[in-house]
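To whoever is on call:

I kicked off a structure prediction for a single chain this morning and the downstream step that reads the tokens threw a length-mismatch warning. I double-checked the sequence; it's 374 residues and nothing unusual in it as far as I can see. Pasting both halves so you can look.
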Amino acid sequence: MKSVPVAKERYRIAPLGAHRESWRTPMEQDPAAISLADRVARVDQEFERIDWKDPRVRSARVSTDVGTVRRLFIDRDRRLSSEATTVAHNVVLFGFDQGKPGFAFARRNGQGGLELTRLTDEALERMRRDFVESFGAEQVPAGEYEVVFSPSVSGLLAHESFGHGVEMDQFVKDRAKAREVPRQEGGLGDRQPARRPVDRGRARLLSVRRRGRDRRPHADHRERHLRAAAHRPHVRDLPRRPPHAERSRQGWDRKVYARMSNTFIAKGSSDKAEVLASLKNGLYLEGFRNGIEDPQGWGIQFTASTAREYKDGKPTGRLFAPATVTGYVPEILSNVTLVGNDFELEPGTCGKGFKEFVPVTSGGPHLRTRARVS
């Protein structure tokens, strides 16, 4: 028998202990236990809550999407499974006032049951108010402004600044300037759509309430990208601590990518009232629509639903819609002067480039900075 040379072992996978566990989304009203007719009746009830007496309302849409994702991971030592139910409840208003269009929407998304298919009275009233105000919205004059971001817009800033830019496949391609700056990323709360006790890539156990402040990247496989980085001089300055095991895929038939889950800006020490009162001549941006980033050049652009003009710390009544922020991340961050002590999270959807859409969550406090708005 001929001897076959065996190459020296280069990598070793650390063994994991035996573990068996299952998770299921906690629900007050399980959609599987409620008939389709009753679910349609719930949509009709929400539809009737819209103020149809306002002649400016021309159309309205109420939709509820329920999805269930089951994940299973089995090997010699582990038997892990999860069943996540998500609900996306949306109400949209559209109308005209003297030929000018108006628009408003409200939504409630998260992991849970049909208890999420009813807007709060406060959310419904806010949508009605936004609808009325939208008829008087103007186009914002392009320029540089002192701005205050609402929590949802702060979340947009966090997502576009430190989202794809800290995914390790961007590190290896030398397309991630954000690797030089700390950020805070992690899972918060059982209701968040991106919450997953079993990781969608390698079924590694994740802490739902993990909070970290460091500059470790997100890797789709812990070893693969570190190996690649070790042989590339321009990325040898990567932190040698293990990267966050953050990856996901759109479906079982899709490739696993290094992805973010919940990205947010941490609380500061200023009251919301103090942050807004500091806005002597600027804009208060609320709501989010979309965003895009350039990890290599660290440029970002994102659009808020509205921008309210403020003078001497008070709103003037002038409203702009929409409002797009364009800038260079280090510049916007270096201009931050106040960070609120409030905190809110907003669910959303994120794509890897133009595809691979997965649920994510972003948010933060009220934030004061300076930025170019158009």
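Update from on-call: the warning came from a stale cache, not from the record. Cleared it. Sanity check on the structure: The chain has two domains: 19-134, 143-373.
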